[in-house]
Amino acid sequence: MSIATVNPATGDPVEQFEPHDAAEVERRIAQADAAARALRSTTYGERAAWMRAAADLLEEDLESLARTLTVEMGKPIAQARAEVGKCARNMRFYAENAERFLADEPLEDPGAVGASRAYTRYEPLGVVLAVMPWNYPLWQVIRFAAPALMAGNAGVLKHASNVPQSALYLDTLFERGGFPEGSFRTLLIGSAAVDAVIADPRVKAVTLTGSEPAGRAVAATAGRFVKKAVLELGGSDPFIVMPSADLDAAAATAVRARVANNGQSCIAGKRFLVHADVYDEFARRFAERMSALRVGDPLDETVEVGPLATRSGRDELAELVDDAVSKGARVLAGGRVPDGAGWFYPPTVLAELPDDARLIQEEAFGPVASLYRVADREEAVRIANQTTFGLSSAVWTQDPDEEAWFIRSLDAGAVFVNGMTVSYPELPFGGIKNSGYGRELAAAGIREFANLKTVWRA
Prior knowledge:
Layout: E1 3-7, E2 12-17, H1 22-39, H2 44-60, H3 62-73, H4 77-101, E3 105-106, E4 117-124, E5 127-131, H5 139-150, E6 154-158, H6 164-177, E7 184-186, H7 194-199, E8 203-209, H8 212-224, E9 228-232, E10 237-241, H9 247-259, E11 269-275, H10 276-292, H11 311-326, E12 330-333, E13 348-351, E14 368-374, H12 377-384, E15 389-390, E16 394-396, H13 400-409, E17 416-417, E18 432-433, E19 436-437, H14 442-447, E20 450-457
Parallel strand pairs: 5-6, 5-8, 6-7, 8-9, 10-11, 10-16, 11-14, 13-14, 16-17
Antiparallel strand pairs: 1-2, 3-4, 4-20, 9-19, 12-13, 15-18
């Protein structure tokens, strides 16, 4: 098993790391277990001070850390800086709000249950395992770690094997901020070792962001050992454009929604469902903007789209496009693997997809957009809801009644109106159907890994 940084812009190896053996994994879990017991006796004020200090350290390291993200997985350098900044903001958000989110909640009328006092309180679970992907090497982890640690839990991280430098940075960040030793520990292990960590009695829960097969495997093991799990899996999010929409704003936003992070985002707009009355004009504007994007070295400040993170990811994306084209789909932009080094794929727009194209049901994890012409809002929702995924969605309309109808009708964990899906610390994040279950961020996210304890007093 290879745990290594390979620059996706060149395909060249950068640094390789030895996996942790069983003894080292045991040592790190033991450290996390001891830290979890210590954290239970700390106050929200103490944890908040440590979390703010860790956020300060993150910002001090911004330039070097952003470069690490770009070299490890290929995101444009400006987006890497933005990811670091977003992580620091999330850490401060939970430092500020954790105590309020987890405050005791008294029953207004305790006499109704024969008590003089009755209330609920939130308590930490202990050690929580996070299995995280490579596409947002810091953000995916921090959006779990910040609330988990502020709730008084400890964390252990199994990160993707192609972002080990990011994983090792996170291994020390929280201790540098002042948290007890072992409060957050990285495990350099492969996927085959995850089941044993979930089974460990010191590990009380697990959260995973990743593919549907990975989610099924983790959920099965968690279920076998009766442990709490939160899953954030794939998405094939619809981006719906109705006749009343501001077409220029919709087209410009559609491009950002599709190619942010080189198109490797679970919440990216992937299927663009456009009303027939405005389809031709939207398609023209969208394809022109996609074709005009600058693709190249992600360390170049002017580049808008870098390489895909892995060769296998680039090849799988190309296979999906080739399958659709071979069955009759029309290419409006891109559609061919470029010559040269690195795992690049051009911003691509496909139209007139046949029903048997794999892209109809499978997630395109890269800068490939599928365009659909729809006759009315009913057809738009039928196509939007026909996939097995249900992560997020976007709707463009200026009609208030139409807006309310779409909000009611779309099967998704979120609906964004006249904008693109973005995750915010202040808003719950998660999906339904095969996109997973549970929520991250906001108050819902910190409560996922807390024991809701009922207290009744005579």
